[in-house]
Write a structure and sequence with these properties.
Chain B: This is MPN domain-containing protein. The complex is a heterotrimer of chains A (304), B (208) and C (246). In chain A, 76% of the residues lie in helices and 0% in strands. Chain A has helices at residues 4-18, 24-34, 39-50, 53-58, 62-76, 80-93, 98-110, 114-127, 132-144, 148-161, 166-178, 182-195, 200-213, 216-233, 238-254, 268-285, 290-299. In chain A, helix 14 runs antiparallel to helix 15 (238-254). Chain A is globular, with a radius of gyration of 25 Å. By secondary structure, chain C is mostly helical. Chain C has one domain (9-245). Chain C contains 10 helices and 2 strands, in the order αααααβαβαααα. Chain C is elongated and about 85 Å long. The chains are: A mainly alpha (304), B alpha/beta (208), C mainly alpha (246). The interface between A and C is medium-sized, with 36 and 32 residues.
Chain lengths: 304, 208, 246
């Protein structure tokens, strides 16, 4: 995950690079380190280095890393010829390399030659059955072909071995959500909460999923996880505050006529506090939307 | 107006509503995005639904209910004063060559049609969008889907989308202008707004 | 009894410095040779999985209170049930690491390569030093030492009358052999700082560790008392918000 400071550093460098202020190599290295997706800029500036023999040879052995980076960026931008040329250079330099083999398979993927790519990956897996990148590529390929259920199958198989890989759990959760398989998604988010119990992001996502599943018990649980998000973010999360209000109104509707004594059911204090916090936030930051928010909250029967 | 007359209904989308949605999907090229259509039944001719505005909604986890509910409430509240309401749903798939309407889109469409029975779903057609920069595509780059008598969503296809009209015929020209000037970078959706409330999903400065 | 010996500067130029330089060069050479010979370790799927299971079980133990009770119970059952729980190691199947080492020729081969790259250059240099420089007093350290250090510093000189602060050439060789590690880690980067003996111990210890920690994690999970932390968070959120809106 990219932190705030890293992101500002990256954006600063990007601005500098885009305005011709130099520091291209530093920018490219940072993109690699943070594993962010800025393919168009990487392609543009990486290629300008590669096309300049002086600059290129000044990199020393990093030259080959740059070829790899540019090749991947080019594939992302559908500049397949550029990618092909980069891979050709690398192939010449490292004829036996598995890493170049992966790039070649990736190129097949970019061309949409799914079967050939599949074959290439399978043969690469024979050499090293535990290559995580290739397993993940297979998932991505299934997704790209519009076969989410196959992607889920691959991911589950991958997670059987690499069950501590939270990125994979997250991907699985998102696929499940997109297929509206909320119960399964909830399981994945539980797993993510376990890996990083103090990260508000997962609490929020879990709460959203629980709310979407619905039912009194889930709504009450969702409210608790929204509360956790609020606690962990210091009350800064608009989504969680709104979530509390939504939960409150939904719970009130569902529990109509039931025993109101149940202390778990209603949390009027939390709701009104959340509403006040929201109104305060909007007043400070988006006064034009304050009326809108107030009437929205009124329609949820929360605010006065 | 019953479902029977649905077949003759025409949808007329204004340039701003149209461009906003397409730019939104361009901003998040690698993800599925959605939005809602704002408008009313034309006072002059009740066979026409005027889509006068649009609000870009989300670009991540479209299938989660809480953000959707809250945004629909807020949007309704905002437009009710102008006599407009939510009249349809816009969806752009994650993959380029995916022309199917996914379950999420259908469900949200169903939800909207509960309040506005003639509500259509507009699905972005990537092929047409790509052709826009090259040729002289005059018809909208979206596909119209409506509910048929048996409550299933179906694409109103073959007859060239004549049921979905651009109010201003120049809309596609303006759109390709905006695309080349990378105007899509300025679009904000409700997702952005929920992360940072200072960002306005009405996109007031977009067309200046 | 100790009279000052005057060391010829030629000894410095022709023994002390060449010896040190040769030792450094051989160290670097050895590093590259062993790098060439080291086959990249291909981990075994079972071992990787066991490691991952342990991490996940540990996460469950630490974060248990953050997920609802029912979710916790199903997970615990998944990990610890006696039939096919992930942490359940059937008796007798616990692998003996030493047996595994001998049954896997690659492992033995690896160790042999490592030993070869260590022993051969050492014997060669030792022979070389012995042949050319035996019996030299090569240097003098600037502080006095007790008699105990004689065997360490004056290896190869059988004179009991020489002051202990004089260092024989053979001892200089040994001092270099053991003392240059810090220099190497400066020259070759930190990777080299772990010396071979340590690496060997890690290798041997790893396989053993995994199956044993499976059992330990299972016991840990079994005794854990689940107490859902989330209800408390509602109060905490209330107090956070109260502070915020005030």
């Amino acid at each position: 995950m990219v932190t705030k400071t890293e992101e500002t550093e990256l954006n600063q460098l990007e601005n500098q690079v885009e305005n011709g202020g130099g520091g291209v190599w530093e920018y490219l290295s940072l993109v690699r380190k943070l594993k962010v997706r800025r393919s168009e800029i990487v392609l543009k500036h990486g290629l300008s280095i590669l096309n300049d023999p002086g600059k290129r040879s000044a990199l020393g052995p990093d030259e080959w890393t740059l070829y790899e980076q540019v090749a991947i960026a080019a594939m992302d931008c559908q500049s397949l010829n550029v990618a092909q040329n980069c891979i050709k250079v690398l192939k010449k330099k490292f004829p036996e390399s598995k890493r170049v083999g992966k790039l070649e398979a990736l190129l097949l993927e970019a061309k949409g030659m799914w079967e050939e790519a599949e074959k290439a990956y399978t043969s690469l897996l024979e050499d090293n059955p535990l290559d995580q990148v290739i397993h993940k590529r297979k998932v991505a390929m299934a997704k790209a072909q519009g076969k989410p259920s196959l992607a889920i199958e691959h991911l589950n198989k991958y997670l059987e071995v690499f069950m501590a890989d939270h990125d994979a759990w997250r991907e699985l959760a998102e696929i499940y959500v997109s297929l509206q398989m909320y119960k399964q998604a909830a399981f994945c988010y539980e797993e993510l909460i376990l890996t990083q119990p103090t990260l508000p992001l997962y609490h929020l996502a879990y709460a959203d999923v629980l709310y979407t599943i619905g039912g009194l018990e889930n709504l009450i649980a969702a409210r608790k996880y929204y509360a956790a998000t609020i606690d962990l973010t210091g009350g800064k999360s608009t989504r969680a505050l709104l979530g509390i209000c939504l939960c409150g109104s939904a719970i009130a509707q569902l529990s109509k006529g039931r025993n109101k004594e149940d202390k778990d059911m209603a949390a009027p204090e939390l709701q009104s506090l959340a509403a006040t916090a929201l109104e305060r936030e909007y007043k400070q930051k988006a006064p034009a939307k304050l009326n809108l928010l107030s009437s929205a909250l009124r329609s949820l029967k929360i605010s006065s | 107006m019953g479902t029977g007359s649905n077949g003759e209904l025409k949808y007329e989308i204004s340039q701003n509503a149209y461009i906003k949605l397409v730019l939104h999907s361009l901003r998040h090229k690698t993800a599925a995005v959605n939005g809602v259509l704002i408008g009313r039944i034309s006072p002059k001719d009740d066979g026409v639904v005027e889509i006068s505005d649009s609000v870009p909604l989300f670009h991540s986890n479209l299938a989660l209910l809480p953000p959707l509910e809250i945004s629909l409430i807020m949007i309704e509240e905002h437009y009710v004063a102008q006599g407009l309401s939510i009249v349809g749903y816009f969806h752009a798939n994650e993959r380029f060559d995916d022309v199917e309407l996914c379950g999420v889109a259908k469900n949200i469409g169903d939800h909207i049609s509960r309040y506005f029975p003639q509500a259509p779903i507009l699905l972005l057609n990537n092929k047409k969008l790509e052709a826009l920069s090259k040729g002289k595509e005059r018809s909208p780059v979206m596909q119209l889907c409506v509910k048929d008598a048996s409550k299933n969503w179906r694409v109103v296809g073959a007859d060239g989308g004549s049921k979905l009209l651009l109010k201003e015929p120049s809309a596609n020209v303006v759109l390709s202008d905006y695309i080349t000037s990378e105007k899509w970078k300025d679009v904000t959706d409700v997702d952005d707004h929920l992360d940072d409330v200072t960002k306005d999903w009405l996109n007031p400065g977009l067309f200046n | 009894m100790a009279e000052d010996l005057v060391l010829d500067t030629a000894i410095r130029d022709w023994v002390l410095i060449p010896l040190s330089v040769v030792m450094v060069l051989i160290g670097i050479l050895r590093y590259f040779v062993s790098k060439l010979m080291r086959s990249s370790p291909t981990p075994d799927a079972k071992m990787v999985k066991e490691g991952q299971v342990v991490i996940r079980a540990r996460n469950l133990k630490v974060g248990a209170n953050f997920i609802p009770p029912r979710s916790f119970r199903t997970r615990r059952f998944y990990f610890t049930n006696e039939e096919n729980g992930l942490l359940h190691v059937p008796k007798g199947e616990a692998t003996n690491p030493q047996a595994a080492m001998f049954s896997d020729p690659n492992m033995a081969m690896d160790m042999m390569k490592k030993n070869l790259s260590m022993i051969i250059p050492q014997t060669l240099t030792f022979a070389w030093v012995n042949f050319f420089f035996s019996g030299f007093v090569a240097a003098k350290i600037p502080f006095p030492l007790t008699q105990r250090f004689r065997s360490m510093l004056q290896n190869g000189i059988d004179l009991s009358t020489v002051d202990v602060s004089y260092v024989s050439s053979r001892s200089w060789y040994f001092l270099n052999l053991f003392g240059l590690r810090g220099l190497f880690s400066l020259i070759l980067g930190d990777e080299n700082a772990i010396d071979d003996t340590q690496r060997m111990m890690q290798m041997g210890g790893f396989g053993f560790d995994a199956s044993k920690s499976l059992g330990a994690e299972k016991d840990g999970l079994d005794i854990i008392q689940h107490e859902w932390a989330l209800p408390r968070f509602e109060q905490r959120a209330e107090s956070v918000l109260r502070k915020l809106v005030k």
